[in-house]
Amino acid sequence: MSSPGGRARAAIPLVLGVLAAVTYSDYLVDLVLQPEGVDQLAIISHLEAPGAPYAEVLRAFDVAAGVLAIALAPFFLRALPRGWGRWVPVGLLVVFGLSGALTGLIPDPCPDPASGCGGAPGATQRSVHILLSGVTDISLLLCPLAVTLVTWRRGPRWVPVASGLAFGLIVAASVLYRWHSTLDPSWPTGLSQRLVVSSSSVWLLLVGVIGARPTTDADPPPRAPRPRRAGPG
Known about the structure:
- The chain is mostly helical.
- It contains eight helices and no strands.
- Helix 1 runs antiparallel to helix 4 and helix 1 runs antiparallel to helix 8.
- The chain is globular, with a radius of gyration of 21 Å.
């Protein structure tokens, strides 16, 4: 049986993972807060633009999700197999947290460039926001892939399997989003963007679950390949 201290330690990353997943899916909060008549499938950056209703709340959730992801990093590190390879997914998680928090602090001032809003300062801020959003998306996409590779031959089998499924889910949602972004109606893009955010939130929750597993001291060493039998002389 695990000790009370061990159970308490395991609960911390679980709680952090749940909170990170909820705060990253801030569009769910928007569904509750937004008044009637507001497009519930609008692009999320439109909902967080300066002057939009409850934009400050949504951006605060972005910052919170990034901070919570960084707080998960020590637990995530301890739960992964020992070696330099585990620093790759942990580093990607920290990069996601930093860039994600900054996207909340540096919002897109002009989600619709065709309107000509913001002027030169607004254009610069928009470029920074787009860059940070790209870093956030790429780091979160590569994180489950890195975990799959690092844990493939070490630790519980469910870790690489679940991480690989999460990677596939995020890739599928991202491809759908890129395809929908070429269409004229905006609602398919908004819908697929929410699928990307939701699949990413599933991964953040899974990071908390992985971080709650026992430390790697008892993990078996990598399985050595079987030696070939010598043929008949």
